[in-house]
């Protein structure tokens, strides 16, 4: 049975590892495919973690190209794959990691021209049980004077 302390420790470790990755912000408001402020990118990716072991993947797709989102485990097995529509829109996908085993997971987002890979590391720490000790001293008598 998992304790709340274990969930807190696991969430802290996952968030520290996740925040250590280089951030890329999705500029969701920009949908004009000829905007030169993006440096020719056809899409941008942003990720953040919620407190309940859920990772949100946000994307802004600027060019009408097919984008593929793939999630792989450390053995390379595909756990999730979704082909996004060929349109310039915003996407948000949620991934639950509360039942995932410890290991390294790769999110790969590609449009066959550009590929972005983000790694997520899951580390399960054993729960630390708190101990409480109550001691009693020798009996003594109290006298009221």
From TrEMBL:
Domain of life of the source: Bacteria
Signal peptide region: 1-26
Presence of keyword Signal: yes
Record keywords: Signal
Protein name: Secretion system C-terminal sorting domain-containing protein
Organism in which the protein naturally occurs: Spirosoma radiotolerans
High-level lineage: Bacteria, Pseudomonadati, Bacteroidota, Cytophagia, Cytophagales
């Amino acid at each position: 049975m998992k304790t709340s302390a274990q969930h807190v420790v696991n969430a802290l470790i996952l968030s520290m590892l996740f925040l250590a990755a280089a951030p890329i912000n999705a500029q969701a408001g920009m949908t004009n495919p000829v905007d030169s402020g993006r440096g020719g990118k056809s899409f941008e990716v942003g990720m953040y973690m919620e407190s309940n072991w859920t990772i949100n993947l946000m994307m802004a797709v600027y060019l009408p190209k097919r984008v593929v989102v793939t999630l792989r485990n450390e053995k390379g097995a595909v756990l999730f794959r979704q082909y996004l529509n060929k349109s310039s829109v915003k996407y948000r996908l949620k991934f639950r990691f509360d039942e995932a085993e410890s290991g390294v997971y790769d999110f790969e987002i590609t449009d066959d021209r550009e590929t972005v890979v983000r790694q997520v590391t899951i580390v399960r720490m054993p729960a630390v049980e708190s101990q409480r000790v109550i001691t009693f001293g020798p009996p003594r008598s109290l006298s009221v004077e």
